[in-house]
Write the structure tokens for this entry.
Amino acid sequence: MPTVRINNVDLFYEVKGTGEAIVFTHGASWDHRQWQPQIEALSNSYKTICWDVRGHGQSSLPEGKVDSNDFSDDLVGLLAHLGVKQAHLCGLSMGGHISLQTAIRYPETARSLILIGTPYTNTYNRFEKIVVPINRFSSKFIPMSMLARMQAKTLSKFNADNEHYIKDAVSAISLSRWIRLWNAISRMESGDHLHKVNCQTLLLQGDHDTMIERQQEDLSKKIKHSRLVKIKNAHHATNLDNPKQVNAEIIKHITSINLPLDSL
């Protein structure tokens, strides 16, 4: 399986298909396998790229403090390695926020954004300002096997197959590594920079996912060229719960960008 050394990290990635590039970035504590339903459906028409964010899956994590800017730097480095100048950046949750920050920090790389259940801040309201630091502290004492079981149970109600995958992905990360990762992930902030996003943006929200619902609605108002679509019968593992609708919306989004103006 291919890996490349970027920013002192061995990044795992997979490329399949040809055509316009779509980069899929997974959620926190998961890995590239999250996107299997999208790769299978879209790689016949597009160049699909999925990867393991540093510290996740088969990608390494150097010693020391994790800086959340490293995530988008890694993504841009991977694109450069693959010779991809511009791509549709698709991500879920943390992966969506990484995609968003990449479009903000490296706008020339983003053909468009596809943000699924994506937060843009960890200090959205008073509740988050209190709960997120508590969660950051308490994560030091929760075994990864327990976190894996809790995630799997919560996010497998619409697709029972999610349970095995989530347990496997989450439990593969050591607690010491997760503490370092979560310290960075839970501090990601983009609220002051949303006006910098100029590319077409598709927001996909699971109709049963209340975790990020208000933030996604805010994104639809604060990002100029954006469209919010609800995905039926889906929770936070939106692309796995209803891959058929998610895939259709991604194709519709990319196709609409490529249509000539007089056909819109």
Summary: Confidence is low (pLDDT under 50) at residues 260-264. Residues 243-258 form the longest helix (16 residues). The chain has ten helices and eight strands.
